[in-house]
Amino acid sequence: MSGKTVHIKSFGCQMNKLDTTLVNSALKDSGFALTDRVKEADVVLINTCSVREHAEQRVISHLGHLQHIKKSRPDIVVGVIGCMAQRLGNKLLQHDAVDIVCGPAQIPQLTKLITQTLKQNQETISVTEKIRKGTDESQALALEDFESAYGTHDKQIPGQAYVRIMRGCDNFCSYCIVPYVRGPEVSRPPEAIIEQIKKLAEAGIKQVTLIGQKANSYKYKSGDKTYCLADLLRTACDIEGIEWIRFVTSYPSEKFFEEILQAMADLPKVCNYLHMPAQSGSDKILRAMNRHYTAAQYLEMLYKARDIVSEIAIAGDFIVGFPGETDNDFEATVDLVKKARYKNCFIFKYSPRHDTIADKRLADDIPLEVKKKRNIDLLAIQEEISGQLSAEYLDKKVKVLVEGLSKKPHLDSAQSNGNPQLIGRTETDYIVVFNGSQSLSGQFAQVKITKTSPLTLFARLM
Ligand code: 5AD
Ligand code: SF4
Questions:
Q1: Mean pLDDT of the chain, nearest integer
Q2: How many angstroms separate the alpha carbon of residue 399 from the centre of ligand 2?
Q3: Domain coordinates in residue numbering, the chain
Q4: pLDDT tens digit sequence for 428-461
Q5: What pLDDT, on a 0 to 100 scale, did the predictor assign at position 138?
Q6: Does the beta carbon of 348 sit less than 6 angstroms from any atom of ligand 1?
Q7: How much is the CA Rg of the chain, to the nearest whole Å?
Q8: Distance from the CA of 311 to the center of ligand 1, in angstroms?
Q9: What are the φ and ψ backbone dihedral angles of 441, each rounded to 5 degrees?
């Protein structure tokens, strides 16, 4: 649709970021121009997240803003894609600002939906009717084709790209909306993944991040062989041009665990980094969350990981204020965090999600003030640990992949020599700030760490 301009705003996780990249490429391919400014756009798309109430509220407030803009520009077309589109369907279409609702499994049809709406000025919706039944075969093929055709590099972060290895989730952690909006767990064929990484390497990509809700349970049966994540990592390492490979997120499970860590230890290209959420340190709460491990088993897995990969950095997620979480349960979480010695943790206040098992069966009985306090307390404990771990980097020489200009100025960075502040990441996912030429973006650089803080290392170029 030449001459029309699209703006996409993306909320949420890496899955959404990747979907935004795919949609961007598909739209460009059909003749749309992309813009960073809502003001210049004929079509505004919002890629949405449903994982917590707060994420949905942000989208609703954004839609309110667009409704206001529509008063003076009634021709503007607004589309909602992503998890909220699947979760709320028709309810979203009733919002005055919304013209198109398109679920995550329907993004291959999005260009067509937009073109129709622009031409005929009518509202359209395309979501999966019975999400737990999954997509039908033709839709599954359409998704695969779409991913292979548009799974390219969008230059958001030079030199890096995400590659989806699986869709959906079958775990049904009791608090989580993902299985209800992203559907059943499906691993992509290994050949398609490897083909895509080869194409990315040819386009100059140096780091790929393999993504899945439970990337470590990737499993694909082909003939007599069952491929797991370790097989993918080994094959991807043979691709010339790809220098670093990561994967997120890992579910704490013994299955494939040692093979994957052994691959990390054996293969220099596989980054020594594991994001493995524990969610809680209390066995009672873990059971209520429908997580299939105890705190002791979880810690055993971390110790094993450190045994096999000595330099590994581990990150975690926790939910505080889950229904029934007593002070003692929270203390068990504090205890786990102290023992786990994470590089960093993402800590969330429990947010009831409609239709999930926790929401149906358990009252959200922890007062907001208590959730907030537990969140702050846990962050403070983690910050101390992060500070100790990052301090070990002082005076070390490390290799970083440069992401680009640092968005906020850091007074603590080394002397500038007229160069701007850049941000890079170590193999272990530490953020490093240093002064250097912007032309280093997308390249590897050697730096020496001159100062550390809990979440950021400061360095000078060597
Ligand atoms: N409330 C709070 N946090 C949640 N998460 C997932 N669902 C919820 C919820 N209902 C968190 C988990 C998960 C991360 C992506 O989001 O910690 O690992
Ligand atoms: Fe949600 Fe659990 Fe699946 Fe992660 S593993 S996406 S928390 S249901």
A1: 95
A2: 33
A3: 5-131, 151-270, 272-391, 397-461
A4: 999 999 999 999 999 999 999 999 999 999 999 9
A5: 87
A6: yes
A7: 23
A8: 28
A9: -55, 130
- Beta bridge pairs of residue 314: 274
pLDDT band of residue 414 (cuts 50, 70, 90) is low
Owner of token pair 């491929």:
227
pLDDT greater than 80 at residue 1: no
For 5-131, give the CATH class.
alpha beta
Where on the phi/psi map is residue 75: left (φ > 0), alpha (ψ -120 to 50), or beta?
alpha
Which residues, listed in sequence order, are joined to residue 7 by a DSSP beta bridge?
44
Residue-wise pLDDT for 215-263, tens only, equals: 999 999 999 999 999 999 999 999 999 999 999 999 999 999 999 999 9
CA pair distance 97, 396, nearest whole angstrom: 53
Average pLDDT over residues 94-118: 96
Concatenated DSSP letters of 391-427: HTTTT-EEEEEEEEE-SS--TTS---TTPPEEEEEET
Residue with structure tokens 């959404």? 16
CATH number of 397-461, picked from 2.40.50.140, 3.40.50.300, 3.40.50.2300, 2.60.120.260: 2.40.50.140
What is residue 204's predicted lDDT score, i.e. its pLDDT? Answer: 94
Please give the pLDDT value at position 157. 87
CATH 3.40.50.300 is right for the domain spanning 151-270: no
Sheet of 313-320, strand order = 273-275, 313-320, 344-349
Ligand 2 pocket mutation, candidates 251, 275, 285, criterion most atoms within 8 A of CB: 251
| Cβ < 6 A, ligand 2 pocket | 169, 171-173, 176, 178-179, 213-214, 251
Q: What is the largest CA-CA distance in the chain?
A: 63
In CATH, the architecture of 272-391 is: 2-Layer Sandwich (3.30)
Q: Specify the ligand 2 atom closest to the Cα of 251.
A: 5
Instruction: Between 255 and 3, name the one with better pLDDT.
Output: 255
175 lines ligand 1 (CB under 6 A): yes
Location of structure tokens 């009717």: 129
Question: What pairing do the DSSP bridges indicate for beta strands 219-222 and 225-228?
Answer: antiparallel
Indicate the top mutation candidate among 15, 251, 298, 317 to test ligand 1's pocket, ranked by most ligand atoms within 8 A of CB.
317
Global pTM? 0.96
Which structure tokens are listed for 113?
């939906």
Instruction: Give the model confidence (pLDDT) of 309-319 as tens digits.
Output: 999 999 999 99
Give Cα 77 distance to the centre of its chain. Answer: 27
